[in-house]
Amino acid sequence: MENVKKNEEGGLKLNYKRTIIIGFAFFGILLLWQVYDSWCPTFLTELFANTFPNITSAEEVQYLVGIIMAFDNLAALIMLPIFGALSDKTKSPIGKRMPYILVGTFVCAVAFPFIPVFFHYNNIAGVIAMMAIVVFFMMMYRNPAVSLMPDMTPKPLRSKANGIINIMGYIGGAFATVVGIFFVLTDYLDKDGVGGWASHNIWVIEIPFLMASVLMVISCLVLFFKIKENKIEKEVEQDMARGEELSELKEKANDDKPLTKANKIMLILILTAEFFWFMADNGISTFMGNYTIYFFEASSSANMINTIVGGVGSVIGFALGGYIASKITRKWSIVSGLSLAFISYLVWGILTYTVVEFGGGSGEFPIFLYFIWFIKGFGMSLVHVNSYPMVVELCTTKKIGKFTGYYYASSMAAQTITPILLGSILLVPEFDFGILPIYALVCALISLVIFLFIKNVKNNKTSFKKGLESLDIDD
Questions:
Q1: What's the pLDDT tens digit per position in 241-261?
Q2: Superfamily holding 4-460
Q3: Most buried one in 32, 75, 343, 469, CB count within 10 A?
Q4: What are the angstrom distances between the C-alpha of 340 and each of 50, 79, 288, 375, 381?
């Protein structure tokens, strides 16, 4: 079965079945990551408050939480490009990406459930150590897993394929959130004061972590048994060559020569803009759980519901992102997405300081945030679904892992800096968690302005099959 086939007009057609199977890799990544982001900052907040009673300020605690989250991301920043470049050069009977995927998955799956165990027994060193192991081996897994899609998909179809893969990822993230709502009862953290959770049943917080590990292993095994890298590489060789001819770049990629000046400038601009949109997105996602609990004094389950609402907007954007890019190009799809995110942050900031009493403490999660998160999710999905294909557009299949490393190095650099920066801002007496929308708004605006300067792209329109033909999944 070929990954793509030519239609009557000479265009390229995506094989949905194979793309969905590749998406199981991203399913496992976001499943684990959603549980990690939802609870690790809150675990650390409780542990720091319990371990260091001399720290009385919530802002000081958040500063320490930001530092720990940043150390995790710093390790990822270093390892992502390394594993990407290594996997490009790896040759094995099971492919160049699969060895890293298998090792990374199984180490993560073993270490991940120990995070809530150490938390329950008030062992802050154990929690931090398990978090570090999970992040390190997740990065060993993540780069090669993401690289599988462009390895097997011609350039004009990568936005569409990336949308499908991201939908699979968000199904994983949504599943983790739903599990959190039903199994991680908010009373576990809310009752009996700091440290009171030690008297509760440990399985209340252990179940989501265990389920994430089990499902991550299952998704990896599906990928391993269904995707035969070496065989597929030979099957799609001609279509990949055709994809190079149809690239959006004005100056084509050539791995045997250095990047042209125009392509180098384009890469730098994309990565810089990406850095700032991740500064915004990861900054608020890192502290959103604590924002809900400590700013609004609302139930943490409300933030989980909000995450699902944003995920629904994202899935719609992922489904439409490739189609939109085929009509207005990837660049303008990303500009549109960043604009929606900027507007969302602006409305969030205005409503927070006009509708909600300054300083929070209302005890209720505001309904308007659900609408804002839906729009933001849709906008940022247009950004994510098209930005990664723009980066790997700048190379051929020989260096996809390396350029994937560039893409994720930029995002991880942002995720390293933004928790510390936000934590530092929260130390300022005049600020509290209400600063989150303003922070995100400024970062999104910078990103949008930078992206407008990208020039080295053609106004290509990809020819896709339409109607029922587009759903063909022939073997």
A1: 888 888 777 777 776 777 888
A2: MFS general substrate transporter like domains (1.20.1250.20)
A3: 32
A4: 40, 32, 20, 7, 11
